[in-house]
Amino acid sequence: MVSKLLIIYAHPNKNGFCGEVLNQILKNVKKCEILDLYSLKFNPILSNMELNAKGNKKSEEILKIQEKIRTSKLIFIYPTWWQNMPAILKGFVDRVFSVNFAYKYVGHMPKGLLSGKAVAITTCGAPKFYFTLFKGGRALKVLTKDSLEFCGLKTKGFVIGSARELNDEKKNEIDKVVKKALKWLD
Q1: CB 122 within 8 A of CB 178
Q2: Whole-model pTM?
């Protein structure tokens, strides 16, 4: 049963645009849990043991995170770096959304094992139209469509473009995006 809000924060600091997204979410929700991957010093490297165990041999840390994911609505906050998510977030997906937890194969076809909703909010230095029109929103699609929907989650992605100077106008834009994201999760 999905009842909680879990924020996966993937930026090395809480200042700037991603930090403002997090602050706006915290202003708008009563209760949530934050997994700050950098503060946790999350190890993004999928070990050979984890890979060859086909999801059956996991650390206690991963098992606890998986239980939180199973019972939560998810919000991912991260910057777009090189048209993709930061490596720590990619490693988080590799290690946590594993076979027999997030998906399995039935015959030769994959089947998602998770249910619920997830939102991804990313920031990028390029204008939003460049991010979406010329690059196809790749940094959102890799996470939302290719990874989370593959695992059975319903997803929505949001981008905050031209993330170079955090001023009042940009804070207002972030506030609007956060409110749309939270409304979609309801």
Answers
A1: no
A2: 0.94
Fold of the domain spanning 4-185:
Rossmann fold (3.40.50)
Per-residue pLDDT of the chain (186 residues; tens, 9 = 90+): 346 999 999 999 999 999 999 999 999 998 999 999 999 999 999 888 887 766 567 889 999 999 999 999 999 999 999 889 999 999 999 999 999 999 999 999 999 999 999 999 999 977 777 777 666 678 899 999 999 999 999 999 999 998 899 999 999 999 999 999 999 999
Q: Among the residues of the chain, which ranges form H helices? A: 16-28, 48-52, 60-70, 87-96, 128-129, 138-143, 168-185
Q: Residue written as tokens 């106008």? A: 169
Q: Which residue ranges make up each domain of the chain?
A: 4-185
